[in-house]
Amino acid sequence: MSDTPEQQVQEISRPQMTGKRVLVTGVTGWVAGPVATALAASGNTVYGAARFRDPAQREPLESSGVQTISIDLQKARFDEVPNDIDVVLNFAVAKVNDFEVAFAANAEGPAALMELCRPEMFLHCSSTAVYAPDDHKPRRENDPLGDSHRPMPGMPTYSISKIAAEVLVKYTARRLGIPAVIARLNVPYGDAYGWMMFHLMMMERGIPVPVHVNQPTSYTPIHSDDIVRSIPYLLSLASVPTTIVNWGGEDVAGIEDWCTEMGRLTGLTPEFAPTEATIAAIVPDLTKLHSTGFRSHVDWRTGLARQISTTRPDLLK
């Protein structure tokens, strides 16, 4: 369990960021939206950036105190970005099959945004998808990189464009003297989103859930509450040259684990389909993250129960 008394004692309290002009990109996505609204509630002026092709996406953010602006990282369209941004949190990502589009949006775009804003600090959300899997050995920040997401249907550009983004962010931050941190996020989830929801839908329909042949298919899922709490800790690592840090929850849990737990909660029986055409286990080593004093509080079983209670209470036993 992640919230043991020992871990609570070890955690160092770090003040939440306040009084800053913060630009959060990818704000219509799962991860960035809660971060933006939490920062707005903490006394920051928050600009939530996305393409906003659907104007209706603005309303819930603006009702939470986030000022929405339209940008396009792929096309370097930043005309609505205000001046004097203190902190940029880049969560935008394009999951596309076209490498040119992926490089433009995921790598060139963040570098161009850094050139424009010249912030005091820049946080770039990367992914543990950049690692080359090595059985179930925890991956440290200096371990070999690789194309781990290539086997996953529909994600041929993801790992490579994420690696390219890290290179450009590091180069641009060093050239401009901007303190930056690259946080390699593992499996994010929350009360109303996450990979687990798709697996629950498959279980409900009797569809076998893909798992890697080299089982268990393990990760370190981190709940939205802890993602929000961790932002000041991550920013404490911002430096020149850029610091890279793994970002995940305390507990190692596999697809097999959370599907079995969802089965216990709902009475559904998971079936698994071992295959090489999916993502292998990636367990990040969190030593550097823990060195900031951060510890996650929401263990994955509690998080799953909250998620199902929020999204599918009708399935609970």
TrEMBL record:
SUPFAM superfamilies named among the record's database cross-references: NAD(P)-binding Rossmann-fold domains
CDD domains assigned: SDR_e
Residues in NAD-dependent epimerase/dehydratase domain copies: 22-233
Alphabetical list of InterPro entries matching this protein: Epimerase_deHydtase, NAD(P)-bd_dom_sf
PANTHER family reported for this sequence: DTDP-D-GLUCOSE 4,6-DEHYDRATASE-RELATED
Family recorded in the similarity comment: Belongs to the NAD(P)-dependent epimerase/dehydratase family.
Protein name stated in the entry: Unannotated protein
Naturally occurring in which organism (per UniProt): freshwater metagenome
